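Late entry, evening session. Most of the bench is empty. Finally got around to the prediction I had been postponing all week. Sequence below, unchanged from the version circulated by S.P.
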Amino acid sequence: MGEARGAALRAAALGLLLLAAAAACYRLSRRAASGGRRGPRPRPRPGASAGPGAGAGRRAPCGPPSDTSPTASPHTMDADDLQKLIHLLQSTDDPLIQEQTLITLSNSAAFSVNQDIIRNLDGLSIIGRMLSDCIPRVKEKALNALNNLSMNITNQKEIQVYITQVCKDTESASLNSDLQLAGLRLLTNMSVTSDYHHMMINSIPCFLHLLSEGNERTQIQVLKVLVNLSANPAMTRHILRARGPSLLLLFDSCINRDILLRALAFAANLKKNVNNEDGTMLQNQYSEDSVFFTLCGHSTPFAQKLASLLHHPDTEVKEQVVRILTQ
């Protein structure tokens, strides 16, 4: 009897999800049929995409998240639909319903007009509570939703309370897992500006560990975070103290181009900040296996790596190398 009732509740909840999606599609078809002007169609994305040279010569690799909402797009859901979804997420303990609801909210949050609506409906805190769920798939979908919502500066002020937990979850997640990548994507967005960098200091050793142990997809995402952090002079000493002997492996002509460019941008940012310290960055503050000795000390291996990369066929790679050598 209890199982039948649970199945009925699940079917009703999933029906509500389908109804909300159908309502949005109906409004879209009505506007298209009436010849209404189509609004801009931003492409949903799971995270900010920092360019290869992000942080090199500019502070914000993908620009600060928008704090303004454009004219409502016909692809967005209205406030009533979003409120129903948030209420559903708040009232159910069914992992399948939670997961599907979070996916729908995440897709909706890809449009800036919905980012404000979800925040005003207290959706940020309700989604944030899902980060305490023990089921990885639910946590991953919650991180994806917060990631899209974090493209809004006002939302970031509320989402910052989850940074410490996201850092811990990223460290404890299975290596190269979707959950780990979802955490790194959110940290990438939250590190675009320097406002929350101090909350990630304790995770720098974890980031460097993932950089040496992770696959290419993980390495690229970690480097996006590290490039953002390294662009902030206040973070320089914290990064340089961490252990980083394996960093040298990234500076090789046969390495993935996206990884190489971001690794060079990371090194260039650190070198620039060290040079701006007016000689106060003393070598005796750092261990011999630190990032400082690997990238900023009188490291013959690193110098040899850079000299070899001067012959790299990619122009942007050579420009980044020259930037490091001339600082």
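Two things to note before I forget:
The two ends are 73 Å apart (CA to CA).
Residues 184 and 221 are 6 Å apart (CA to CA).
Will write this up properly tomorrow.
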